[in-house]
Amino acid sequence: MFKIDGDVFRPPQKDILFSTLVGNGVQIAMTFLITLGIFAALDFLSPEKPGALLTCLILCYVLLGIPAGYTSARLYKMFGGTNWQKIALTTAITCPSLIFVILFVLNLVLWENVSSTAIPCTTFVALLALWFCISTPLVFIGAYLGFKRPVYKNPIPINQIPREIPKQPLYTKPLLSILVSGILPFGCIFIQLFFILNSIWAHQYYHYFGFLLIVYIILIITCSETTILLCYFHLCTEDYNWWWRSFLTSGSTAVYFFLYSGYYFATKLKISDGVSTFLYFGYTLMLTFILFLFTGAIGFLACFWFVRKIYSVIKWDYVKQVAINDISNYFK
Q1: Cβ distance 170 to 176 under 8 Å?
Q2: Transmembrane region positions (predicted)?
């Protein structure tokens, strides 16, 4: 692990995309925390009014554009980026546009079938107004503030020439370790997920927001610890490509969410027509993407803190050892 200290802070590939995903994940994580912690757990929202909860989620997400832009800009600047407007635009547009496209396609199907559950055009116009008139400017403000901050200084300088990564053992293969690591975080939400899906698709009231807040905190802790542990294993095998892997490690929780949603569809719902099936998996895909961003950002931030912490200690140990050697040589 100490042999790769000059490469461990080498910027990842596609650093703009990486910074964008982390910023959006932070925005989603804070949205869930505020909604569950302040509104739902304190009984400010009624379970009998799911529309109020959805409205609260949307408004919190829109108003939390500043943390998203701030996080993306600080990472982008650390990676050597110089154009803060570019990272602000990608953060404000990329992930929300993907969610909006999925939602729009699903509603095209509902409009075609003249369904009463279709979202009205006026609601779409209101969502676009919130997105471009409030959320996007807030993201730009956050990116500007983040870019004005001093750049994160790496504890150890980066080598000019990248070190060759040795052959890795089977248990540290990227695909295997990423997929396996998502099992434990998913186990934290497995039980609550059943009741949440029932409230969405079986029209049952969900009353356990206080308990859901506890599960949410446990999920954050589990994602953090799992990602840190696997990151440590990879560093011990001299693999310094931890940036994307830390995001995907905890983000793989979303894969198991999608698989469980498919199991729930096959065993609990009595749906046979193609339109309803398309709608179910369309909305599930949207929720999977949101969960992927959230858990991925949590895992990366925990891993980022861990790596900087251990290599800061290595740096000071190295400085102290050099000083001791110099003093010893002086008195010889």
Answers
A1: yes
A2: 21-45, 51-75, 87-111, 123-147, 175-197, 209-235, 247-266, 278-307
